[in-house]
Amino acid sequence: MSPDDLKALVRSIPDFPKPGILFRDVTTLMSDGPGFAAAVAMLAQRVEAAGAQAIAGIEARGFIFGAAVAAHCGVGFIPVRKPGKLPVPVLAIDYALEYGTDTLEVDPGAIADGARIVLMDDLIATGGTAMAALELIRQAGGIVEEALFLVDLPELGGASRLREAGVAVEALLDFPGH
């Protein structure tokens, strides 16, 4: 299966979550067995090339792709969670959204000092969430030099923000617009 085949499996929904936004819905790709397996295999090749010791997946769809890729590669999975979901003392960071702020948390005990971690999510748009996750993992002692996404919306600049922070960014698919 090619990246173009995968791209055809991503549903586009106009005016969601608000007018003027063209939402890229990857649930249609995830529900297609061969497409999901192909996406996981393609992402896994990049993780293996990076020499990752673990994958940090951002809640929620980053859990789906990140955990599947981690299992495929035989490496650990580190969940980057929304607040109040982890039963241990956490590192937390607040970050800006378009309309307000949000918080991410990570269990610092899940990250070995100096471990090579690949950051993963389903989609990179403005990069706010990915930048917050990057900062948390680095605070916990992880080394993040690579971030992987299923989809990039390059016009929104998130991948560029990560590159400016010293992270190589790859996405299997990109879509114009937002």
UniProtKB/TrEMBL annotation:
It catalyses: AMP + diphosphate = 5-phospho-alpha-D-ribose 1-diphosphate + adenine. CDD domains: PRTases_typeI. One of its GO terms (cellular component) is cytoplasm. Its main location: cytoplasm. GO terms for biological process: adenine salvage; AMP salvage; purine ribonucleoside salvage. It is found in: Cytoplasm. Pathway: Purine metabolism; AMP biosynthesis via salvage pathway; AMP from adenine: step 1/1. Its EC number is 2.4.2.7. Keywords: Cytoplasm, Glycosyltransferase, Purine salvage, Transferase. One of its GO terms (molecular function) is AMP binding. InterPro entries: Ade_phspho_trans, PRTase-like, PRTase_dom, UPRTase/APRTase. Residues 33-141 form the Phosphoribosyltransferase domain. Pfam families: Pribosyltran. Homodimer. Belongs to the purine/pyrimidine phosphoribosyltransferase family. Catalyzes a salvage reaction resulting in the formation of AMP, that is energically less costly than de novo synthesis. This is Adenine phosphoribosyltransferase. It comes from Novosphingobium pentaromativorans US6-1. The lineage of its organism: Bacteria, Pseudomonadati, Pseudomonadota, Alphaproteobacteria, Sphingomonadales. The gene is apt.
